[in-house]
Amino acid sequence: MRKFLLLVLAGAIVIGLYTYVTPKLFQHETKPSLKDIRLATSTNGNPHPNNLSSVEQTILNVISNKCKRELLLKGELFNLSKTDILTDLPLDVLNSHDFLPVKKGGFYEPENCEPLTRTVIIIPYRNREKHLKIIINNLHRILQRQQLKYGIFVIELSLPTTFNIGVLMNMGFLLANNISEYDCFVFHDVDLIPLDDRIAYHCDVSPKHMSAFNTKYAKVNIAKALPYSAYVGGVISLRGVDYKKLNGFSNAYFGWGGTDDDIEIRAKAAMIPFKRENQNIGRYYALPHQRDSNNTENLFKGSLLKSSRKRYLNEGLNTVEKCCKRVSIVYRDLYVHVTVSCDENIVMNQLLNL
């Protein structure tokens, strides 16, 4: 009986608050904001940032119809043991077609609620067709579960130019911004498959290293699963405003190595260092592959990294269009495929003139 009376009392309080707050909210012709609710519930007409009760927050959520990300998340995606993920798995084990239809070009947004954020995935690419199919399918599945409005851009560097991840990331950022507005930019290696759908594909106030556990390195040391503490390679996320503060990636690294270390230095120089995802959630399976013949090791990465902090504001996102251009853009069924060309000599001359 006592529990029943308490429930009745709680219900009366909720109804009373709803009756008091709602009329003031609906005095607005447009959908009320968080500020509107705080104004409606303040005592002197000034908004108070901390006076929003849980009931008022519930009303705001109902009115704004925000998507509820947690309702669709399941955690582990493939039910693999620690032993499984340290072996080379058949590709069909990691493939997935469990996602809703998307628009031409791979664009998607939830139909029945307001998406939590607008995210774009940028994937640097060359000659990895099997890997690309797997990562694209898995990304659609996880991004839809997280109730995001999103797009996926695959950026390819035309031959014979030596592979350059930084150039592709910068061009992808500019092209994605030209096509739509995004809140969050995720830069994603083509061979890293997320193992947990709780990995947040939206941006925090700081740049984030999402791939905190990488099976490529876990085979060497499962406790660390990363090559060194400052490593931010694999998958990272940044807000657009932060990417601009870093001046994007460096364009200087042709071939393998140096690009990820450079952007980590840029982030520290800009005083927005990377945070790392929880290792129990930010888990990725690295698809095994041979290094591309056109992606030889960059022998100058050591000297380039030494000068990174000095030159980061003068070379990167703000200079990439002087040395690179878009060759083609194709709206495929599941992603946008962009091909770009780049003149390595112009990039090197830019560095000499800094």
TrEMBL record:
Compartments reported by the entry: Membrane
First-level EC class: transferase
UniProt KW keywords: Glycoprotein, Glycosyltransferase, Membrane, Signal-anchor, Transferase, Transmembrane, Transmembrane helix
InterPro entries linked to this entry: Galactosyl_T (IPR003859), Galactosyl_T_C (IPR027791), Galactosyl_T_N (IPR027995), Nucleotide-diphossugar_trans (IPR029044)
The name this protein goes by in its record: Beta-1,4-galactosyltransferase
Membrane topology field: Single-pass type II membrane protein
Upper taxonomic lineage: Eukaryota, Metazoa, Spiralia, Lophotrochozoa, Mollusca
Domain Galactosyltransferase N-terminal: 99-204
Keyword Glycoprotein: yes
UniProt pathway annotation: Protein modification; protein glycosylation
Main location: membrane
Enzyme Commission code: 2.4.1.-
Function, in words: Catalyses the transfer of galactose onto proteins or lipids.
Gene Ontology MF terms in the entry: galactosyltransferase activity
GO CC annotations, alphabetized: Golgi apparatus; membrane
Pfam family membership, one: Glyco_transf_7C
Family statement drawn from the similarity comment of this UniProt entry: Belongs to the glycosyltransferase 7 family.
Species this chain originates from: Dreissena polymorpha (Zebra mussel)
Keyword Electron transport: no
Domain annotation Galactosyltransferase C-terminal: ranges: 225-290
GO BP of this protein: carbohydrate metabolic process
